[in-house]
Structures are given as structure tokens and as C-alpha cells.
């Protein structure tokens, strides 16, 4: 049963993503490809972002590039429960958007099995330094470890991915 509910969430992400970026997002696209990101220094945030895209078979979505940056910074995967948990984390960090509210509400209804995980993600977001609105394009050359250190405390950084701290 959970598998079918995850398919519903994946379907909703797929159909709403394009609509939201086309009609609601006002920011300027980065106009970068994952191949270009993979040309950055291996220790840089840009390279890590390119690697994430490459390993998952993704390309940057124009006007929604920062979403993939959130994945790279936090270590959340692109599976359905992590996509929802990532929105909870961003909500805890102060982000507010129509899309975020939709994901949090519908995701909680469709996949309530992960509610504790979502709440832990929310609380983690509250305890991180504000990151959801950083100029990630401007940080592509930044050393990845330095960037993470500016967002997370030492206890949170003990694990390579934040998900393993739950």
C-alpha cells in the first residue's frame, strides 16, 4: 500500500514541478548544465551539485536549481519521503512558499508513516543557520566543507548526511 502512495507523491511532484516553476517562480535560471558543474574543483559545492545530478540522472531545472542545492547541502535523497522531509526542514529554517505548504500538507496526508521523520526534519531546520535563501549560484566555487560548516554545528556534521542523524 505504501508503494502506491509513494507513486502518487512522485506523480504529484512530476506534474506540479513544471507548473510551479513556469508560473510562480520569478528568479532567473542559472543557465548551467551538470557537465559544466562537474568542471568545478572536486572540493567545491558546484562539483558536488553536478555529481548529485549525474548520480541521480537529473539535470538542473531552470528557476528551481536551489532545490537540488538543498539536497546536496543536507544529504537528503530524492525519494518521496526525503523530498517531503526536505520541505519540512526548509520550513523549519524559515522558508515559506505555496509549493512548500502544498508538499508538507499533501505529503503528510499521503505518507503519514514518516510523520516522526518529518517532525525531526522540521526541528533540525530550526536549529540550522539560515540557508534556504543563500545565493547558491554565487557559492558554486566555495569549498563544500566550508559551506556545510557555515550552516551546521559540529554535532550535526559528524555524519556525512544529515539523514543519518535521525
* Helical coverage, percent range: 55-70%
Q: What would you call the structural class?
A: mainly alpha
According to DSSP, the number of beta strands is 0
**Uncertain segments:** none
Shape: globular
User: Main beta sheet: strand number and arrangement?
Assistant: none
Question: What fraction strand?
Answer: under 5%
Radius of gyration: 15 Å
Number of helices: 9
* Ends apart, CA distance between termini: 25 Å
Can you give a write-up of this model?
- There is one protein chain.
- With 166 residues, the chain is mainly α.
- It has helices at residues 2-23, 34-37, 45-56, 65-74, 80-92, 98-110, 115-127, 144-151, 154-157.
- Helix 1 (2-23) runs antiparallel to helix 6 (98-110).
- The protein starts with a helix and ends in a 9-residue tail after the last helix.
- 28% of the residues are buried.
- The mean pLDDT is 92.
Amino acid at each position: 500500500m505504501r508503494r502506491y502512495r509513494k507513486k502518487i507523491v512522485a506523480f504529484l511532484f512530476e506534474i506540479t514541478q513544471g507548473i510551479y516553476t513556469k508560473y510562480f517562480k520569478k528568479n532567473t535560471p542559472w543557465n548551467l548544465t551538470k557537465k559544466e558543474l562537474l568542471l568545478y574543483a572536486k572540493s567545491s559545492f558546484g562539483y558536488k551539485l553536478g555529481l548529485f545530478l549525474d548520480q541521480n540522472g537529473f539535470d538542473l531545472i531552470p528557476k528551481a536549481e536551489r532545490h537540488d542545492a538543498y539536497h546536496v547541502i543536507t544529504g537528503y535523497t530524492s525519494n518521496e519521503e526525503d523530498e517531503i522531509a526536505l520541505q519540512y526542514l526548509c520550513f523549519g529554517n524559515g522558508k515559506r512558499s505555496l509549493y512548500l505548504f502544498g508538499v508538507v500538507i499533501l505529503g503528510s496526508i499521503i505518507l503519514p508513516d514518516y510523520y516522526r521523520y518529518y517532525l525531526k526534519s522540521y526541528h533540525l531546520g530550526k536549529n540550522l543557520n539560515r540557508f534556504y535563501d543563500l545565493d547558491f549560484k554565487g557559492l558554486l566555487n566555495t569549498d563544500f566543507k566550508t559551506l556545510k560548516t557555515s550552516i551546521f554545528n559540529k554535532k550535526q556534521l559528524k555524519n556525512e548526511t544529515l539523514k543519518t542523524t535521525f
